[in-house]
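Quarterly update from the structural biology core.
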Amino acid sequence: MEIINTFTKGIDKDASKTLLEPSKSRHLENWRLITEKGASTGSLENIKGNRLFFTFPTTSPVSSFRVNISGSGVHGSNDTIEIIINGVIYTLFAGLTGETSDTTVYRNILVTRLNAATSLDQNGNTITNPLRAFNIVAVPQGTDAILLYSTGTSVTTLSTTTSGHIISGSISTIVAPQSNLEIIGWATIREDFIILTCSKNNPATGGPGQIWRLTYVPESIGNIYTSTLTLLYNNNVNFTVEHPIPSPGGIIGRYENALIQRIYFTDFFNQYRVFNTADINGFGFPVTLLNILPSTNFSIPIFVNVTVGGALPNGIYQYSYLLSKGGQETLFAPLSNMIPVNAALETTIDVRTYIGGASGTATLKQNNLIIKGLDTKFDTIRIISVYRKNDIDVPEIKLIIEEPVPDDGVFTFSHTGNEVGAIILTLEEFSLLSSSFTHCRTIQQKDNVVFAGNVRNRRLNLDYDARAFRFSSVQQGPNTTNGYPVGTLPDVLNDVNTDQRTFRFQSNGGTVGGTGFLNPNNSNLPNVSYEIRGSGYPLPPTPATRLHLQDSKRFTINTPGVATVPHRIPDPGSKNAWNIGVANQDYDLQYFFENYSHPGYHGLFKGYARTETYRVGIEFYALDGTPDFVKWIGDIRMPQSSDGFPITTYDAVNSNCYTHPLFLRFTVNIPSSIRSQIGGFSIVRVKRTQSDKTVLSQGTLGTVDLVNGVYTIPPAILDGLACEARLIFYVNPGSGPHYVRGFFPDFFFNNGLDFRQGDRLEVLERLDASQLAQYAPVGGNVNINDIRTGKYYSTMQPNLIDFSSADVLYGTVVEQGAIAQNINNGTFTNQYIDTDTIRGQKCFLMQIGNLVSDAGAFNPFSNLLPTSGIYLVNYIRPNSNQYGGSTLTARASNKYISCGHFQPIDQTSSNALSFTFDVYGGDTFVPIWDFQERLKNNNVNPGTVHIPFSQVNYFMPVETTLDIDMRAGQTVNRNNITIYGGDLDESQDLPRHYNIENDIRQYIPKPINFSLSEEFDNRIHASQIKINGEETDQWTKYLPADYIDVEGSYGPVNSLVRFKEFILYFQDKAFGMLNINPRVILQDQAGIELQLGTGAILENFKYISTEAGSKSKWGIVIGIDSLLFFDVYNKKIYNYSGGSAVPLSDIKGIQSFLHANIKGDILSKDNPIIGKGVTTTYDYRFMEAIFTFHDVVERVVGTYQSLDSYYSLITSLPEGIVKQLTVGQTIQISSLYNNQIILNPIIIVSIEDSDTIKIGAGLPLLQNGDTITIVGSFKNSFTIAYNSYGQAFTSFYSFVPSIYLNDKRIILTPNPDNKKSVYIHNEDKYCSFYGKIYPSLIQLLVNPVSAITKVFDNFLWHTEVEDGSGTNILSESANKLRVRTDYQDSSVQILDLTKLKRKERSWNVPVPRNKNKDRMRDKYMLVDLEFNNLLNRRVIFHFLKTLYRASAR
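Predicted structure, tokenized:
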């Protein structure tokens, strides 16, 4: 009888011995079912091997030098440069014609000369450029640097000598020569491979890396390919074999045009990155520009002036910018200060006519700004304007200007409002303070969109304690030891200073401010200290607002006889620049009025309200501009006037009154370890909303006294003429509580204030009158204008007790010209004197209790309107929950806004660690407020002497959140009330936009229980849509809302794969499909179906399987019509072709093999580059999905009695065990000491022979006679192929590479033992892999009629063996044969084919007998055949026929 075994159904290791089909094999190795040369598909054909395709060379050093032009120009006679290559000096060229003083221009000329084929010798003769012999290339870098590198392998050292004035300093090595390079990632762009490498010597933390282009073409004879390898990039990119880049799922190649051919890649260790492989200057690209969010040195736009020449609408403007290069953009830079634009002209000479207007109204203005210190490694700047009509509507944000970055880093621009092609940005887009993420595990593209999965945004989370404490005058502060803060104090509730009247100083006990922790890592300097200051101290004030009021005809400035206006700077030359202490932030304030109507003053000099508390922090920015969490500095209570901070000072010589907004002068000390991580920092504060205020407003008071049963104001005596200004309001009945009138800007302009129980009044200081003016008659029969006008300034009165306060029992805003009102259970009516109403501007009528001071009862209201001055009063609302509270939880919930401060940290040109600067950016203006306190119109009979008006007007400083300098309507000053007298019509209006705060961007402190990495491992983001050739690469733009979260219970998203027209996502235990650009089907009126897009890129997702997934991002392979993946949890290989996932390894017979061989590091590791994981590819020619598994397993080597040392132990081991040990191998020694097992690692340093073994040092001593168990870690790597055509696992292969490169035409792999050498597959000798020849193996099971016992007699197998020319070699076939039954084994038989016969072209081979010469007898028999492939023959194995008979037994 006979049975024929064929191979069409591949390998089956699972089926029972009695049931295995004869068309299946137990094991096949180095065979293929698809023919290579024809006429063999369906039979076994041994496979072609691989040959060396190319080797990564040791790279040359990458060096840099800076060009330096000295003198006024560049002169040809001195232009020589000497480069030292491998120790030999080469003079490159001489005789540059012409001259230039522009360093960048000259640098570019040098680059051209360095790269030219020819040069000049010192005599001006043309010679071959000596750099060409070394393949040295020069590329520009920055504005003045040149990068030199060699594309060859002969350069080992590269330096220079200083010659003439070309070189600034010696050449520096950026990257040392790199050797033993390994592939860690790859992509294809059209016909080219783009390959990423790094040295295997790089540490786990990363090191230099390279990007190469590999091109290949077939030779004219045969189908053999030749390759060209070009180095595109070599820099300190932080590459490491510990974090390789899978393909697909980790890298994308995109051809846009001849100049833009980018790769996008992620290793989940560094940021998601981009590189343009077609950029001829790409080698000089700074590493930070590879990141999706490139690093930069930000600056801040600086206001210069407002001029005529544009069409900007009335409103508030701010400006930002971003930088770009190669399609990648930075974040937006910090915003400029706010700039008000009005229709009124800044060229006016009369400040009274400079009036604020309604937002949105047309003007003829343009804003002019300058940006200094731009990062010149970028080539394009884009200017952003932010326009705000009010504090309610969404700001209008536009990209208005796009220009090249100037070589000197200084960019000036004008915003006219007439810009053509301005691009509108959403507030959401502009408000992004960071990218949606910086790191992602996997990327994939479809429909011109890149999808990024498993994302995180790693924050700095700096270890920096920013708290600054305040001390008493005896240098004792809360939470301190011996008067100084303790550096280890935790941030707890009592860090909030509740007694800032006592504890208000720095640690010196004298300077008002705070002192931070002394940092032992920074020379024991305090991290943060601040001093509270009033602008303009000492005189002359810089800056300060000024009041000039001198005679009845005109306003003058210090020069007599010159007609001009108040608030004008008297000496422009003395104020040509003003700086807050930050480099490149100089403001030119030499023009226009010196008050808050100045467009520069408005944004620059908003300060902080006296006696108010502000929550202040510091915000650090990463090198890419991403903000860290705000670090709280303190809740800082501002001092009161009597602490030495008067609101005004008076210059009697020049008759000038100066106001003084409070600001903070900070000193911030930063350790070098932190400095290297940041690009800058800002002082920020929590916005003081209405509910956060304790000081609601500031103003002055007018009394309402009870005189003879009527509430009145004490008479105002003006030069003996009584202004019969009795009480503006009086109450019936004629007795009652004490009432006062309050004059507060915030009440006057209805700034959201009202009365609440518990409100208080606090008297801050007395303002003395600097002038009481009596004005002469102006003609006619008018005798006199009886006018009392006062200008008031600060005088510190020792008898005025600090914080004198009174409860406000009732309050309401009233119009002083109103008719009788029912107020607080009493009727108040207008007071009439001589039939005329006494009236004035709006006021706040209050009922108050007793005024109490710290020293006891005190009542300054007994003479509230002395002839010499008035009192400055705060309207206070006690607030125990300011800013949401002072607990850690409350502080972690705050949102901070900008103070207009930004301190850049330049990593390239400065090593400064200490920074002192001034911070304004508060919410408080300190203008001069002019208002009419009261007015009486005396109307008597015509023709008689009469006084038409009697009135009292105030000019007084006041702290307010309103820019009242910009109010419209009638005012005392604007309408010359001080000259002619008259009634104001109450028409004043203050548009809301003048009071806007700098709050577009908000910053947050670290949340409670925050994890360092903001990781969303089940989130998938979608980029913006790419258009080829676009200026801004939209594949680096991810908006916050463009994402979808898949179910997190199935594990993280490990890989995104494009299969057919779908994006599949793989998690540990599930996989599914994303719904990309979904469309809905509608029908029109004719019933025709229409497809409409929904507008969402990521609509939803659906799971294909929740039973199978892939943790192995390298274990997914896409075939012709199906996708295969390895599931490490189930230890199965699945196939997906559009329906459900099919467990191929189960139904195709290898599940038992996978379960037995996958049990080590591969279960938890996913990195085949270091030999722990699975890697895959698909051979499109032979329709094979190839899986290579790399596992490291531990197994017991043996148990032995130790001698006196490890050395004697190891050398005493049996020879077979010693041979298993390899150099550098770590084995575990389990020693039994006192019945406890202790594991100690042993490192084998070297093995010379079985008698010479060196053991690693530092191991504990052994005791002679201890029982030692040796456990070794051993590699277990194998490769198996699944054939899509035959739908079977068809063979194991003897090559086990770490990575496959595949462009659907060729397959490349690195030599596992020498990874810098890369081999091309399916070429060269048969079964020769990486220079070593492997046999082709067959294992078959012969099991006919399995129920009976058989005797196996003969084999007949049919093979074809061909040499290289295709000639059939009839004398060659299998080389070895072995047969086995359950109890018999022939052992391996070497076949002597010369003694075997062929029968009808089939080899007739007797079945070898058992070792005792018995015939093979059983129900089945295992057959092993080996073809050694040593002669490089093509072998086709068609079938095996076995002749057998029933056993007679």
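Residues 610 and 638 are 5 Å apart (CA to CA).
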